[in-house]
Amino acid sequence: MSLRREAERCVANQHSLRLNAFVTPLPRAGQWLDRVKEADRRREQGNPRSFIDGRLISIKDNICTRDLPTTCASEILDKFSSPFNATVVEQLEAAGAVIAGKTNLDEFGMGSHSVHSRFGPVKNVRQNGDGQDVSAGGSSGGSAVAVAADQCYAALGTDTGGSVRLPAAYTGTVGFKPSYGLISRWGVVTYANSLDTVGVLGRKVSTARHVFGLVNQHDARDPTSLSPFSRSRIMSHLQTPRLASRLSSTPLRIGVPVEYNISELTPSVRRAWLLSLAHLQDQGHTIHPVSLPATKHALSAYYVLAPAEASSNLSKYDGVRYGTRADGPDSDSQPEGYLYANTRGSGFGSEVKRRILLGTFSLSADAIDNYFIQAQRVRRLVQQDFNAVFIAKHPLAAADAQDTGRRAQQADVDVLVCPTAPSAPPRLSDFTRPAAESSPLDAYVNDVFTVPASLAGLPAISVPVTVDGSSQDPDVAGIQVVGQYGDDDLVMSVGELLEGRRLE
Amino acid sequence: MLRPLARGAVRSLCSQCRRIAPIHHDNHPRIPLRHLQTSTSPDRVPLRKQLKQDAKALKAQKRQRKESEEASRQEWELTVGVEIHAQLDTAAKLFSRAPTSSTDAPNSNVALFDLAFPGSQPEFQAATLLPALRAAIALHCQIQPVSRFDRKHYFYQDQPAGYQITQYYEPFARHGYVDLFDYDGIAPEDGDRVRVDIKQVQLEQDTAKSQEYPPSTQLLDFNRVSHPLIEVISMPQIHSPATAAACVRKLQSILQACGAVTTGMELGGLRVDVNVSVRRRDEAPGQHAYDGIEGLGQRTEIKNLSSFKAVEDAIVAEKNRQIALLESGGVVEGETRGWTIGSTETRKLRGKEGAVDYRYMPDPDIPPLIIGEDLIAHLEQALPSSPDALVAMLVGPEYGLPIEDAKPLIELDDGARLEYYQDVVDILRPLQADQDDKKVARVAGNWVLHELGGLLTKTDRAWDAAIVPAQALAHIVDQLQRKRITGPTAKQVLAAVFDGDRRPVPQLLEEDNLLLRPLSREEYVALAQAALALNPGMVEQIRTKNQLGKLGWFVGQMMRAGEKGRVEAPKAEEILRELILDEP
After folding, report:
1. Which residues of A fall within a CB distance of 8 Å from B11?
2. What mean pLDDT do residues B186-200 have?
3. Residue A147 above 90 pLDDT?
């Protein structure tokens, strides 16, 4: 099929399917068509710019694009257009990709179900057994649904605590969050700087691998981008014989974190997990239980740290230099009133306000020691937990910080395999019916398996696995593979062993 | 209903908001309208008498104030710490490549990050570290091998990100000191030297400039946003208002001398906060401890003082307020206060309950600052002389200047005047090589400061070394010292050069016939006799009553009668004495 037909089909899907995956879709006809035609010509001549030359890639609407608005699904950036392209957008366009529009999300990336959007909730392509609409997952729900519904070839999302992996699991797509610092964050609107990671969504792992390969570059404009020097250190570290032989000549040691076997795990997800492990074992890999004791505090630590950074990052939205400004005098007309109390009050949605308040509290003088500092300690413990179970050492950790006391007791493993989410996607109506509004804590629980890798900055992928049930339709669940920092390739390769498997 | 605004625009804002931001206020003191006094009082006092009375009253008032200040000093101990914020002399901003120039059109020097655009990130400009390090070295600080940047949060429209990036938890320099000497203007009770410890020096961002046009307009200029600043925090070790002002003045001169800053307080390049507490000397130590110094009273902070005088006046006023409060049984509250120039009392800005919680958080985007010892060693070695070293040099045997001349030479025009003075002396010395005059450097000092300075003041011109080239001034002084021109001629020539005469001084003297052609003894005698004939009575008075002061009148007459520039006053007087008093 020509690139043009493929692109036209995607754009047609963008306009025909009522999934609300896009904030800004591509117009049916436009300049994009010429660019796809040019790519078709290049392909016919046998010199395409890249694997994605002429393919449509959707961009989550918290990544800046010069030609399309960047709203972050927030009222406060309702009509905002960025004066510059994010580095990732530049990189994709340089490789010939066509930006397939801007996808819907939870406001500023804060949410797990893509329902906290100024443009309304994203609808999953799938429905539950009772034919009800279900959550697309969040916050990159729009990107995941756009991929699942064939509205684009692949999509970029952002993953702060699981925002790429969770929607991938709920929509049956592949969601890859690379190691922190590999993909440039210049032009990615910050939610929580120390956790925000650009991720890739695709229908297959190979797609994610191709797109990742194009954006995995150092960027001097992002101070958290890994330097060329560190990158080459990691490369040579991975080329040591012990690490290079994994999967190619030696079978893998696969870790199963015992702490992840929680009571909230639904039977179908537990079954998918067990069958996935059995499948890997059948292929000659070995399974080893491992302990990550700090896991039980990881979720709480995440929900202290991410809102703390968010409260700081979102201080800039005041409607003064850009963005939406409330009408009329924008203060309580007290002499000491703030110039933009109304703007911020009406511009932010409820979940964003909740996290700003949470973060403002946990950074305040009386609370910072018990919350922010304590959560940073937990974060360090989570990192140490991972370092203690992986055979590969953390390539960036100081040499003396490697061998902590617990290490000796652990079974050394190459990757960890666990569910992405504890359950199948919940009903959308649980979040959207005002009367039935579920507690925000319920939504936070969905991040329990994804947050630890985020806190440690590790590469993690969610791949769809199909489990044939006895009576009902087959269940699709997301299985997550987590690896040591820099082991992005290995993580994707293990994902490929599992993706699309029908297991029984 | 929300109204969207065009992207990227910086606009004026409508509000009646008053500034609450804790630092970096631009003072726009409102000048009160003066009304001409047209009515005259019924019982008219002669103007002369009136002026005399006023001066007397003022003197008495000052004496009384001095006495009461001294009395309260005996009873109360004042403790002051200062914090200064100084704009570093750098080409780029702290976290963007935008230029720092403050003279460009408003909002022309701003990068995306300076305006806190979504998705933009900081890019630390390593060159901004150099002046900061020079400052820390000049203040004898220990440079920290690792320091970090933190966010200090508060909402104000001059702060685009909603936070200022500063170094709160781990500043780049700690534990320095500044020495204050008697010639720095410290209080007499502090003796001839006081050392004030520097707690820390930190790097931070400046804010935007905001101009208020009440009731409803605010204009914002983001050119200044993220201009690199250093904040220097002293220990609370100062015990008099004069010494506090001297400390700020000294800090400014050190920062300028080491090349860390270019603009001083008068141009807004340096802003000061002070903290003030008092305690009774004869009572048990106070309950409060600040920066490890215990036994102090409750302190208050006075923000944003913009002149040396304001520092001193505000501390006096705040000290007296606290003392009066405590003497009447009250309690000092830990609060933030403000000071308006020309005022007599500080005013409350916000109390303890209104204190801003800055929610200091390590900036997650900015890596730690790692400073190598090799860099510090290089900068230490290349550091220009400190003001104290300069004073020692100028009052020492090389120049032999009085301290009253050495100080202004160092302080004027950001060191440019001193550089000019040294140029003049360097040119002068070889010219004077054949002369045995040790005072030549001193005379040159006088001409650079007072004669040239006087012309600048009279014409209200700013300093520029090119107005009178050093070469020209050196030649004038040389000719004067060689007695080839008279003092009045030297001044006349200086004025000509000052007004743009660019002929070399020797040529100018030649062409304008200004070189002294000494009169003969006969010519002097003739001039003197003509003068004496004008007033025989006065001659008699000088002779009989020995009223030698009246000789000057005759000297003046001789100068007037003689050819311009040729009559030398000392010689004229010599002849007069001879004729009137028969002195040999």
Report:
1. 320
2. 92
3. yes
As given in the structure block, the two tokens for residue A444 are 């936070």
Asked if residue B442 and residue B554 are part of one domain, the reply reads: no
Statement to judge: residues B342 and B259 lie in one domain: yes
Pick from A206-220, A339-353, B6-20, B440-454: least confident: B6-20
Task: For chain B, count helices (H), then strands (E).
Answer: 17, 19
B259 part of a folded domain: yes
Residue B87 β-bridge partners: B229
CB contact under 8 A, A77 and B16: no
Using the structure block, give the residue that is written with the tokens 């008699």: B540
Check CB contact under 8 Å for A316 and B2. Answer: no
Q: By C-alpha distance, which of B351, B303, B281 is closest to B78?
A: B281
CB B257, CB B218: distance < 8 Å: no
CA B364 to CA A191: how far, in whole Å? 11
Mean pLDDT of chain B: 85
Handedness of CA B561, B567, B570, B574 (dihedral sign): negative
Q: Which residue has the higher pLDDT, A244 or B31?
A: A244
B112 near A CB under 8 A: yes
Query: Distance from B12 to chain A by nearest Cα, in Å?
Result: 9
ipTM of the complex: 0.94
Domain that holds residue B547: 521-581
Phi, psi of A95 (to 5 degrees): -85, 5
A60 touches chain B (CB under 8 A): no
CA–CA separation, B535 and A211 (whole Å): 110
**A26, two tokens:** 């591509």
Give chain A's domains with CATH numbers: 3-228 (3.90.1300.10)
**Mean pLDDT along residues B287-293:** 84
Contact A186 B13 (CB under 8 A): no
A204 against B577, higher pLDDT: A204
State how far the Cα of B571 lies from the Cα of A461, in Å rounded to an integer. Answer: 104
CB pairs under 8 A between A and B: 158
Which of B459, B491, B511 finishes a domain? B511
User: What is the Cα–Cα distance from A191 to A196, expressed in whole angstroms?
Assistant: 7
Q: How far is B206 from chain A (nearest CA, A)?
A: 16
Same domain, B281 and B351: yes
Which of B 139-158 lie inside 8 A of A, CB atoms? 151, 153, 155-157
Is B287 in the same domain as B214? yes
Is the residue at B34 inside a domain? Answer: no
Judgement on whether residues B347 and B389 belong to the same structural domain of the protein: no
- Among the residue ranges A138-152, A334-348, B64-78, B193-207, the one predicted with the least confidence is A334-348
In this predicted model, which residue has the larger pLDDT, A67 or A501? Answer: A67
How much is the pLDDT for B20? Answer: 36
Q: Clarify whether residues B417 and B549 are in a common domain.
A: no
Identify the burial level of A23 via C-beta atoms within 10 angstroms of its C-beta, where 0-12 means exposed, 13-18 middle and 19 or more buried. buried
The model's pTM: 0.82
Q: pLDDT tens digit string along B536-558?
A: 888 888 888 888 888 888 888 88
Enumerate residues 6+ apart whose C-beta is below 8 A from B6: none
Report the number of distinct structural domains present in chain B: 3
Which residue, B315, B342, B369, sits at the end of a domain? B369
Q: Is residue B432 part of a domain?
A: yes
Are both B355 and B241 inside the same structural domain?
Answer: yes
Q: Do B543 and B571 share a domain, yes or no? A: yes
pLDDT at B407: 87
Q: Closest chain A residue to B8 measured between Cα atoms? A: A322
Return the pLDDT at A440. Answer: 66
Q: Is residue B552 in some structural domain?
A: yes
pLDDT over 70 (residue B29): no
